[in-house]
Amino acid sequence: MDELKKLKKRFSVGKAEWSDSREEQYRKESQDIVFGFGDSLKMTDTAVYIIRNDEQIEIAKPQKAKTYWFESWLKIKEYYGI
Predict the structure, then answer these.
(1) Residues with Cβ within 8 Å of residue 66, at least 6 apart in sequence
(2) Which of 19, 24, 42, 81 has the fewest Cβ atoms within 10 Å of its own Cβ atom?
(3) Contact assessment for residue 50 and residue 76, using Cβ atoms and an 8 Å cutoff
């Protein structure tokens, strides 16, 4: 039984680390997309905005902190038609 607990714990730590690194990839890709179109990105605790021609456009209001950038990345891709 102890071995099973160790395996589950080890798996969940690995999954959390993978999740964090994947979120970082979504953040970088989101920035690359936005900057590639000559716009900039503004982030708050509750929303993500694209700044285009001095206009602030709300793109996403992520529902979960753990998937903040994944949710934002999906909306950014949709906004730019990618």
Answers:
(1) 19, 23
(2) 81
(3) yes
**All structural domains of the chain with their residue ranges:** 2-80
Query: Which tokens is 2 given?
Result: 């102890």
* Residues 44-79 pLDDT 10s: 988 999 999 999 999 999 998 888 999 999 999 999
> The sheet that has 48-52: what strands, in order across it?
40-43, 48-52, 55-60
Secondary structure (DSSP) of 2-51: HHHHHHHHHHHHHHHHHHHHHHHHHHHHHHHHHHHTT-EEEE-SS-EEEE
